[in-house]
Amino acid sequence: MAKEITKTKAKTAEVADNQKVMPFGKQNYIIVLIGIALLALGFILMIGGGSSDPDVFNPKMFDFQHITLSTILILAGFVVEIVAIFWKGKNKKE
Fold this sequence. Notes:
This protein is an all-alpha fold. The chain has three helices and no strands. The longest helix has 23 residues, at 64-86.
């Protein structure tokens, strides 16, 4: 019976240690913030180029910034977010 209590205490201590470990480290959160910044910048660059008058066509809507650059930044932001999820930094306990 004493062995069972000792095993239970050991498992409880093991679970308590596992709960203290965060799934992501500081590096992961920094990479996530970089990805969010890239996404926001891409969406901001996509704004504009329209016309206030529906009868007037504004060709600025199809320039490099709105079509190409913003799309590249948004895709890069999503790639950075995926990298942030899978990034495994140096663990001090191991």
